[in-house]
Design brief:
Helix content: over 70%
Subcellular location: Endomembrane system
Shape: elongated
Distance between the termini: 58 Å
Strand content: under 5%
Main location: membrane
GO biological process, one term: intracellular protein transport
Oligomer: single chain
Radius of gyration: 19 Å
Largest sheet: 2 strands, antiparallel
Structural class: mainly alpha
Number of strands: 2
Pfam family, one: Clat_adaptor_s
InterPro entries: AP_complex_ssu, AP_mu_sigma_su, Longin-like_dom_sf
CATH architecture: 2-Layer Sandwich
């Protein structure tokens, strides 16, 4: 992370620690492979935590709830896409 000279380094370290704790809670014991194969999810979590480099949400429960809601929306979109593809195939085979 890049910080200005007048920024508090301990605060930045605390934000990094907070981010890692949330990642650990989401992925279970988080490791590099989780971040490599799910980088989009890690960025989404980071976006929920920070805005313009400042801490937006300090509650781990709130972030976990927002991530869970996002996961539910993604699953619903996948299901709708599957059903629409099935409908297209069914109409094409008539």
């Amino acid at each position: 992370m890049c910080i200005d000279e007048e920024d508090n380094e301990l605060e930045v370290l605390e934000i990094i620690h907070h981010f890692v704790e949330i990642l650990d809670r989401y992925f279970g014991s988080v490791c590099e492979l989780d971040l490599i194969f799910n980088f989009h999810k890690a960025y989404y979590i980071l976006d929920e935590l920070l805005i313009a480099g400042e801490l937006q949400e300090s509650s781990k429960k709130t972030v976990a709830r927002l991530i869970s809601a996002q996961d539910s929306l993604v699953e619903m979109a996948k299901e709708q896409r599957k059903s629409s593809i099935s409908n297209i195939i069914a109409q094409a085979t008539k």
